Description:
- By secondary structure, this protein is of the alpha+beta class.
- It has helices at residues 26-42, 68-81, 85-95, and strands at residues 11-18, 48-52, 59-64.
- It has a 3-stranded mixed beta sheet, with helices on one face.
- The mean pLDDT is 84.
Amino acid sequence: MASKYAFTPSLKELRFFFCQTSEHSQAARSFLTRAYPTMKKNNPHTPILLREALHVEPRVWARYGLSDKQIEETVTALVKKGGSTAKATETATERA
């Protein structure tokens, strides 16, 4: 059985952006207060970055390690199809 908050090995970095005082970031702050210790314990080699800034909407970014070939395929797919970055990245990640 997988551990709670155990990340895939291809995840290279996780970034959380949120406001330290505003109401719209309260859920993000609450989640991180509760879940950060478990995430870090189960993923000691994955950087988990917490970035606080006034009046920003809460967001999460995940950076995955892609090979040179996967990056080239992603960019080529974007140019050819004019599709979104998310779709092209998902396609390249699935091939990994």
